[in-house]
Amino acid sequence: MVLTRPLISTGNAGLDSVLKGGLPSNRLYLLEGTPGSGKTTLGLRFLLEGVAAGEPVLYITLSETSEELESVAHSHGWSLDGVELFEFGSSEEVLGEDYEQSILHPWEAELGDTIRLIQQRVDKLQPKRLVFDSLSEMRLLAQDPLRYRRQVLALKQFFAGRNVTVLLIDDLAGRAPERDNHLHSLCHGVITLERLTLDFGAARRRLQVQKLRGVDFIGGFHDFAIRKGGLQVYPRLIAASHHVEFKGEAVRSGVGELDELLGGGPLKGTTTLITGPAGSGKTTLTLIYLAAACARGEKCTIYEFDERIGTLLTRAKSMGLELGHYIDSGQLLILQIDPGEVSPGEFTWRVRSDVEVRGASMIVVDSLNGYMTAMPQEQQLLLQMHELLSYLSHLGVVTFLIGLQHGLVGSLETNLDISYVADSVILIRFFEAQGRLRKAISVLKHRSGAHENAIRELRIDSQGLRVGEPLVDFRGVLTGTPEYFGSDAPLLEERKRDR
Q1: How far is residue 212 from each of residues 40, 42, 237, 482, measured CA to CA in Å?
Q2: Residue 379: in which H helix or E strand, if any?
Q3: Is residue 456 a part of any domain in this protein?
Q4: Backbone dihedral region of 338: left (phi > 0), alpha (psi from -120 to 50 degrees) or beta?
Q5: Where is the KaiC domain (predicted)?
Q6: Residue-wise pLDDT tens digits, 414-465
């Protein structure tokens, strides 16, 4: 017969999602990490969840004072009412005034006395949840690895029959991994928190569940941030676990010639990469699709890494696109993303929330180059972006990615493997003709079906976005310096407004 224990919440929704429900109750767990990684914050939130459930809880601290713990709680807007704090500065409450030391410090007390104090307080309170902070102090008191292991094992055996779920915190100070991995074998589960310092921007934090007996948790690293209210954990996305049925119909822009280029338009559940040099009209092209989607009553979101929102709206208005009322109605959401402050995991979680909670059906990432600065390793960028795009595809979301090419004319080289990222690729290029700098648009790839192989002129002015006839009288347009051999260039000129 297989015995299963009920799961208890850690008090953190993101971590519970990683654990697929929570921690098995009445077990011993190791919470390890470097200083500043968020261990104390997570430990306090774990106990406060027990207080909310009406359980007696105990926080044993060998290293921090009650004032320091109160300060941590206050920074998150928490009250520690209901949390029993036992610090070794007040251990005379346990031993009485007749004990030869009224104040015990971890570096002065014998390890055996320390363990006895803990056992006495546990027997007195009989908590359902307990946090022990930290094992590094016990390690220093033991001075001998064998003695230390025996004491930790004795603690485990002591807690075993008392119906208490225990978090042992270890800050890894003075710990030799090759000698001290026995902690992992003694504990029912191990959660590791990491704090990574990048060359620029805010520190990145991530967690990993290294082991959890009897639970099918989500493995790998999960980004998290410390915000007011606790740890915001962003579970790693697994696209295959998300799928809904949808009709893969074409999404039209409202510009007939543009829709013809893509055989009617990009299909739902596909990703379109719009690439070209700076100033060629990539963002403007996506705004045409966004405005058309909003007019149909759909909800759309732009994640803006590069351009200011005010500048974007001013430019849209100059070409006749009034997006303000869509923003006011909640159909269009424009979010300014600071790549130096947002981790890729947090960005993915924002997109998920936007799609699953808000119901967005069209997502624009402007631009991939800005997104790349949020990820220090390019290989991880490709993997995370591919997983995110697969997830959006499973849910029938139309995604537009804007990618910047190097140079104004010349090389088509980009920093990303286009065929790996996108289902469709739209290329915008500059070319010179009749003494003027003009733009050409073409479709390089369209996995969803047939598309035009013609190169058309693109013009963006006060009249909006226009796509001209195929440039059949030119050769070498994609080189930037085409040769004209026709009798009359069929090029788009600026049209005067009707008065």
Answers
A1: 20, 17, 20, 64
A2: helix 378-394
A3: yes
A4: beta
A5: 6-247, 249-481
A6: 555 556 778 999 999 888 877 788 889 999 889 888 888 888 999 988 788 9
Kindly report, residue by residue over 93-113, the tens digit of the pLDDT.
444 444 444 344 444 445 677
Residue given tokens 């990469």 in the structure block: 273
285-295 residue pLDDT tens: 999 999 999 99
β-strands 332-336, 474-475 pairing: unpaired
pTM to 2 decimal places: 0.86
C-alpha 236 chain-centroid distance:
8
Question: Is residue 132 one of the residues assigned to a domain?
Answer: yes
Residues 85 and 65 in one domain: yes
What type of residue sits at position 47? L
Give pLDDT, residue 279. 86
Q: Which of 184, 211, 236 is the last residue of a domain?
A: 236
Report residue 127: phi and psi, to 5°.
-75, 160
Name the percent of the chain in helix, strand, coil, to the closest 5: 35, 25, 40
pLDDT per residue as tens digits for the range 181-202: 678 889 999 999 999 887 776 7
Residue 312 CB partners (closer than 8 Å, separation 6+) = 283, 302, 304, 334
Residues 141 and 262 occupy one common structural domain: no
DSSP-derived letter for residue 463 is T
74 is written with which tokens?
């206050």
CATH of residue 376: 3.40.50.300
**Tell me: the pLDDT tens digits for 11-20?**
999 999 999 9
Residue among 181, 149, 155 nearest 168 (CA): 155
